[in-house]
Amino acid sequence: MKGRSEDKEHVMVGHTDWYRQAGRRPLREEGFTPELMQRIEAASVSPHKGNARFSRGKRPVFLLLASAFVICILIWQAGGINGLQTLIPKGHPLQKAAARPSSEPTVEPQVYSPPVGSAEFEFSGKKYYMPLPLDRDKRIAYAVETSQGILWSPAPHGVNYNKYLFFHPTEPRVLYLSSKENSELSATSATKVYSYPLFASDENTYNYVSGVFGVGDYAIVMSYSKTVGTKASSKQILSVVDVRKVVPGGTVVPRELFTLDDPALNVYRSLTAIDKQHGEFIMLFSVADGEGGYGYKAVVYDFDSGQKHELNAQFQIQESTVTYETDGEKRNIEIFIKTGEQWYLDWMNEEQNSR
Amino acid sequence: MQRDNLQFATAYAPEMTLRDLMEDYGTDVWNYAFFLTRSREQANDISQEVFLKAFRNISKYRGQSSVKTWLLTITRNTAFSWSKNSFWRRFTALGNHQGTINHFSAEKEALGKQYANRIWEIIMELPDRNREVLVLDIQYGLSISEMSDLLKVVPGTVKSRLARARDKVRMALEKEEKE
């Protein structure tokens, strides 16, 4: 038996300030919560529940084998597959099904049963799933609703997942468009929209897609590139895909709208917003008014034309929306990204106060 | 209060209820699972697995180690068997838009929210082997011998991993101070 008193070798405790500091509570939030405790107690009630993850797959396999065995016995006793027909009463639905030509497509109600590892989404009250191999990170699988269907992109295979600097994909990022009717987001039933090149500039620099957003007839794609082994990535590029132009066998290259590299976007409470109804992207730059305050200067990008123009209006910012009036019309649009530094400082203050 | 005195634990452990175990060691198990996986979701699932396993086998506890190190051993084995099919990628969803967005500043922000100070951010960026020994030392106060048993490596290896881990954190802090 080896106890702590037997050969206790404290290592550097008190030797340096950082070691002492690190000995404090390392996490802001309690991880082992009363809710988790209740969940575990509930799982302990059924002796098999806790191991459901491991045993769940065995029961269907057993039932399948048992069913196959019974069917084989029936066929054997009836003298082959034709004889099986005699075992089924005339007029029984199974008779018709068995008599149907094999080339006739079967009409089955679509069942929502995502395989293990699937990324799941919900749009307009309907659930969708994207089957993924277990070695994919489903958090970087994207799907958005557009006027023409669900635009989605599976998480590409990658390597070095737990080495941030050295992670990179090993296959290109692909965008697909699926019908809203299909619960399963699968490449076999979808139209391929575009495949990003795996490499950006050289064999060590890869393209990444960091977000996809649905805006009616458009999907906005955020992308960047990064060189393996470096911390810095390129600036985020916002591109637009007009989903009305997606046709089987064709390619719709995302049209670059702009790069998020304007330093003015970092000023105070600058932000970007999307007007879904009018198909516009708006950049709101905080501008010092010379009296210690800030006003806004707005630039509008039109998705259809790709053109930009300045907009003079009074803007009111709420938590997630921007309200303004133009040409006598009051518009309320959704904030896309809060880019100004003051937003970050506000968040930091909130965090400090909540500690 | 944790019942870590070995004699007491050996006598008491077989009588412990699941709730006793969780109240005494829940935070230890969850935190260790989190330090290993860097994922709250996985730490929750692993904690569940560990306590269910431990509770079913509590009568077999013979007191070769403290209850805490016994649970940490189960936690480690569970986490490693799970890691074969999972990845510890650190991406974070932002905003309430349709779809999700991941970018590096957001990732950093989310991680910053997770840990109480910059030292822990640095510790969590260490390679798995170095991170684990440092966590076992700082957070759990295990002796070299206990770590050696838990990690199934010789004491000399524990010492060298600790030394390397400490050096890396110290150098990272010094570098940041200079910047």
Structure description:
The complex is a heterodimer of chains A (355) and B (179). With 355 residues, chain A is an alpha+beta fold. Chain A has seven helices and 19 strands. In chain A, helix 4 crosses helix 5. The longest helix of chain A is centred in the N-terminal third of the chain and has 21 residues, at 58-78. With 179 residues, chain B is an all-alpha fold. Chain B is 68% helix and 0% strand. Chain B is built from nine helices and no strands. Chain B has helices at 6-12, 18-37, 40-56, 67-83, 104-114, 118-124, 128-138, 144-151, 155-178. Chain B is globular. The chains are: A alpha+beta (355), B mainly alpha (179). At the A-B interface, helix 1, helix 2, strand 3, strand 9 and strand 19 of A face helix 2, helix 3, helix 5, helix 6 and helix 7 of B.
Q: CATH class of the largest domain in chain B, anyone? A: Mainly Alpha
Radius of gyration of chain B: 18 Å
Measured distance between first and last alpha carbons of chain A: 42 Å
Beta strand count of chain A: 19
Q: Which range best describes the helical content of chain B: under 10%, 10-25%, 25-40%, 40-55%, 55-70% or over 70%?
A: 55-70%
Major sheet description of chain A: 7 strands, antiparallel
Proportion in β-strands of chain A: 25-35%
Percent of residues in helices of chain A comes to 10-25%
CATH architecture of the largest domain in chain B: Orthogonal Bundle
CATH topology term of the largest domain in chain B: Rna Polymerase Sigma Factor, Chain: A
